[in-house]
Here is the input.
Amino acid sequence: MRQLIAGNWKMNGLSEEAAAIVGPLRRGADGLACDLLVCPPFTQIFTVAHILVGSPVAVGGQDCHPNEKGAHTGDISAAMLRDAGASWVILGHSERRQDHHETDALIQAKTHAAVAAGLAPIVCVGETAAQRVAGDQNKVVGGQLAGSLPPGFSGVVAYEPVWAIGTGKTATEADVAAMHLFIRETLVMQLGQAGEGVRILYGGSVRPANAGSLLAVPHVGGALVGGASLKAEEFLGIAKAAKA
Ligand code: PGA
Here is the structure.
């Protein structure tokens, strides 16, 4: 399966900045060996999707509400993301687990809602520095997978060690290999044969300089990129490192 390189803009991107990123992406995306996805803030999804019409670059949201609609001031439903031009959504990012106290059960409900609305979900998992020091990374990630993925899950999983996000520290290739194998085995246990086909992204300080070696690790199905996705050149540099 083609690797997926997904950009998570987080709370960045006014109109001018968004256009400055997406214009060059559109021009540079043809002929890449990977799938490319950008996840701008809600306010830019419509504009970005419009700029990317007819290009191979897909658009996603960074969160959605578990309900279809209703009295939830300030929230965005999966159908709204679809309506604005998104076909993907990132769910359970560690920043949402932390800042908004999102639980595995809530993330599972959001994942269910996303799939029901026709969005492909990217469900994020990953341990904190303290959990890794304690040797608890498999227990933590295993628990997140068991709690966050609905039965019959189809979508993408992103492994993002919290301590590697935005810090410039990446997990070693050996740690990525061990964790991605563990996630693969867990997915097969949970989902049966379908677990073999789930793409497992690595995220946390991915840059053009380290992308080649990270993307070559077995069971790494792509990358979830934060900071480096805000510069078209860097993001395309990572995409060019993806395996055919
Ligand atoms: P980073 O963020 O690439 O800036 O470390 C990754 C993410 O949070 O998805």
